[in-house]
């Protein structure tokens, strides 16, 4: 039940205190931990798929909404536009996402506008490091840190591994946040893996909402999930799809496959592909690292420089799930804003592993 006046302020304060206690309790342990694993049953009506997750994490979801209202200039544009989209959600967001977001809003006891905001903000405001590398035996491995500065404390307690199933079989899986129906980190077993990194180009949140109002583009994380859910998808067809779909915001899409050489970084603006950067082991380009800058103009990014040095020191024969995790655990690639680290390989589904990061090494 949503109330007004003083009761709203008191309820919001109590909610924030609850989530801070949860966060501090986890932080006090100062140990990395694996997130909860959940199943989303795609055979259920979309509105029911996330009910159990959103109900369990409702306090954290509500606290995130309240934090966002303080963090973003909500009242002049952002929240009113999100409310417009929420009020007519079927005309702005495709199925099944519109109904899934309805279900999240009801279970978490937030408005549809707030649920819309939560379902687009993570994929356009996160700072990340993604790596695709070819091991000495030709195996492709893909790993990422997801960094999210101001919200990292809350998000660490909302990180989940989701296995999307139909008829009891897993079609694809990934790492996401409770209440968030899209995918930022995902794998279609034996086909491809994918991550996205923010490409910061201007007042990105307001522009993204305006793009949604024009009904010409889709949220980035929905695009990722659409390809992961496609039964006929291949590595190359996924690359083409991610290169051509009109988006609400610029982005880097990092895609890995199962065969030698299958690794790319796609640099996108909202409408067009700007660059595609592929693995080329024959030319000694056996890995790609993407943070949050164009590969032809990286500037001075200490995360990028540190990752390059670590990978060069290892070489192709030194790369494996453990060593690439260590690369992503080296400061400042791993930093105070890092929420989680995922290691995965489409050709080795058993390698999929996520750790929520609390043990942050000091950076000299």
Keywords:
single chain; alpha+beta; Penicillin V Acylase, Chain A; 38% helix; 23% strand; globular; disordered N terminus
By CATH, the topology of the largest domain is Penicillin V Acylase, Chain A
When the domains are counted, the total is 2
Largest sheet: 8 strands, mixed
Structural class: alpha+beta
CATH superfamily of the largest domain: Penicillin V Acylase, Chain A
Question: How would you classify the quaternary structure?
Answer: single chain
Could you give the count of β-strands?
13
Strand content: 15-25%
Fraction in helix: 25-40%
Query: Based on CA inertia axes, which overall geometry fits?
Result: globular
Domain Choloylglycine hydrolase/NAAA C-terminal: 128-306
Pfam families: CBAH, NAAA-beta
Signal peptide: 1-28
EC number: 3.5.1.60
Report on the structure:
The chain has 364 residues and is α+β, with helices and mostly antiparallel strands. The protein has two domains: 11-22 and 44-123, no CATH class; 126-356, 4-Layer Sandwich (Penicillin V Acylase, Chain A). Helix content is 38%, strand content 23%. The protein has helices spanning 6-29, 51-56, 58-71, 74-87, 97-108, 112-125, 152-156, 204-213, 220-228, 235-244, 302-314, 321-327; strands at residues 36-41, 127-134, 140-147, 159-166, 169-177, 185-188, 192-198, 251-256, 263-268, 273-278, 287-290, 338-344, 353-356. The strands form two sheets. The protein has an eight-stranded mixed sheet with strand order 1-4-5-6-7-8-9-10. β9 (263-268) and β10 form a beta hairpin. The protein is globular. The N and C termini lie far apart (50 Å). The model is unreliable at 1-28 (pLDDT under 50).
């Amino acid at each position: 039940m949503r109330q007004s006046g003083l009761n709203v302020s008191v309820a919001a304060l109590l909610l924030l205190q609850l989530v801070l206690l949860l966060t501090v309790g986890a932080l006090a342990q100062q140990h990395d931990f694996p997130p909860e694993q959940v199943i989303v049953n795609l055979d259920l009506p979309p509105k029911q798929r996330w009910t159990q997750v959103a109900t369990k994490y409702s306090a954290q979801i509500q606290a995130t909404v309240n934090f966002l209202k303080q963090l973003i200039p909500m009242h002049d544009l952002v929240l009113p536009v999100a409310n417009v989209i929420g009020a007519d959600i079927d005309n702005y967001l495709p199925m099944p996402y519109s109904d899934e977001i309805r279900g999240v809003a009801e279970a978490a006891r937030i408005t549809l506008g707030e649920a819309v905001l939560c379902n687009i903000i993570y994929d356009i405001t996160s700072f990340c490091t993604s790596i695709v590398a070819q091991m000495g035996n030709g195996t492709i491995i893909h790993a990422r840190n997801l960094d999210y500065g101001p919200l990292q404390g809350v998000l660490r307690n909302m990180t989940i591994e989701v296995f999307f199933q139909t008829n009891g079989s897993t079609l694809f899986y990934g790492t996401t946040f409770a209440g968030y129906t899209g995918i930022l980190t995902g794998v279609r077993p034996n086909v491809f893996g994918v991550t996205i990194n923010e490409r910061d180009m201007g007042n990105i949140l307001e522009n993204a909402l305006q793009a949604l109002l024009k009904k010409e583009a889709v949220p980035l994380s929905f695009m990722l999930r659409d390809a992961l859910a496609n039964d006929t998808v291949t590595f190359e067809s996924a690359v083409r799809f991610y290169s051509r779909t009109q988006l609400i915001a610029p982005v880097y899409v990092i895609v890995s496959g199962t065969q030698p050489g299958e690794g790319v970084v796609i640099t996108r603006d909202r409408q067009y592909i700007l660059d595609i950067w592929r693995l080329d082991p024959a030319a000694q380009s056996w890995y790609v690292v993407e943070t949050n800058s164009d590969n032809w103009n990286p500037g001075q990014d200490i995360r990028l420089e540190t990752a390059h040095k670590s990978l060069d020191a290892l070489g192709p024969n030194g790369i494996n799930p453990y060593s690439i995790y260590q690369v992503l655990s080296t400061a400042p690639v791993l930093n105070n804003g890092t929420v989680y680290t995922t290691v995965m390989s489409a050709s080795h589904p058993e390698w999929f592993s996520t750790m929520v990061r609390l043990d942050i090494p000091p950076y000299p």
